[in-house]
Amino acid sequence: MISINTNSASSAAAYNLSNTNTNLQKSLNRLSSGFRINSSADDAGGLAVSMKLSASIRRTDATSANVGNALSFLQTQDGVLKTADKVLSRMSELATLALDVTKTTSDIDLYNDEYAVLSEQLNGMTNEEFNGVALFSSGSTLLTVTTSEDGSTQTVGITQADLEADVYDEVESLDISTLAGAQAAITQITATIEALAGMRATNGSEQSRLSFAADMLAVNKTNLEAANSRIIDVDVATESAQLARFNILQQAGTAMLSQANQSTQSVLRLLM
Q1: What share of the chain is helix, strand, coil (3-state, %, to 5)?
Q2: Residue 52 C-alpha from the chain's centroid
């Protein structure tokens, strides 16, 4: 049947061309943005999963920053402990020098004066802080560091050692101005250095564990980013092929719509 009012071929061609244009715009949008999903309509389920993965990646980044700060705390604490070891070694040296029978009383008094000054230096170290948080605490407090992005399942403890009770209090009252006092000081300082060595060993083990936790977070972040990429990122090679296909379909659809619009003109020949 030949009719004038209805041109089914033209309507079909226009419909197909409209769909092609829509798909072409989607393809251009994906290639220009780099994302396969640019709106919830593109892949509702995939978008929901990607949003959760993206949030998990952000939390992992924040947790990594927290672990890094905890490592810095321990490194700063170890720096103080290392200096305390130098101070104790010098105090031990002074006590040994005070045993020298060739030294006069005035000489030994000078050693004792330096010893007292170094003792006060130890006392000052007990109040050191990191970003307002005490490096050392009475009773060796344990701080908890969360090392998992979910905020609860994995934690590492870092110790605020009791530098005052275990180091300063043990040596501050010693007097090396006498032979007996110097001998007692050597014995006590040697024991205190051993206690300090234990603190540094604990510090080192906690640094080691936090370093492994930081490595694990980095691996988890990489895996999360890879999983998210597979969902939301566009496959450029595949999408480029689709773009070429839709370009060809657009050109063909435009040509066919033009042909369909001209087909009804044959009716005029029947009327002439």
Answers
A1: 75, 5, 20
A2: 18
CA distances from 246 to 30, 153, 250 (A): 14, 50, 6
Q: What are the phi and psi torsion angles at 31 (to 5°)?
A: -70, -35
Residue 171: partners with Cβ closer than 8 Å, 6 or more residues away = 88, 91, 119, 122, 185, 188, 189, 192
Query: How far is Cα 165 from Cα 29, in angstroms, rounded to an integer?
Result: 67
User: Does 260 share its domain with 167?
Assistant: no
Task: Give the three-class secondary structure for 32.
Answer: helix
Domain range for 252 is 8-34+236-271
Asked if 160 and 72 sit in the same domain, the reply is yes
Nearest-angstrom CA–CA distance, 167 and 192: 6
Provide the pLDDT confidence category of residue 154 given band limits of 50, 70 and 90.
Answer: confident
Is residue 260 predicted with pLDDT exceeding 80?
no
DSSP 3-state of 130: strand
The answer as to whether 41 is a domain residue is no
187 with 253, same domain: the answer is: no
Residues 212 and 252 in one domain: no
Task: Provide the number of structural domains found in the chain.
Answer: 2
Same-domain pairing of 198 and 215: yes
Count how many residues are written for the chain: 272
| DSSP symbol at 137 | -
Only one residue has tokens 């006498």, namely 178
Residue type, 63: T
Nearest by Cα to 188 from 165, 164, 161, 167: 167
**The tokens of 49 are what?**
């999963």
Span 93-145, pLDDT tens digits:
999 999 999 999 999 999 999 999 999 999 999 999 999 999 999 988 999 99
Domain match, 260 and 227 both: no
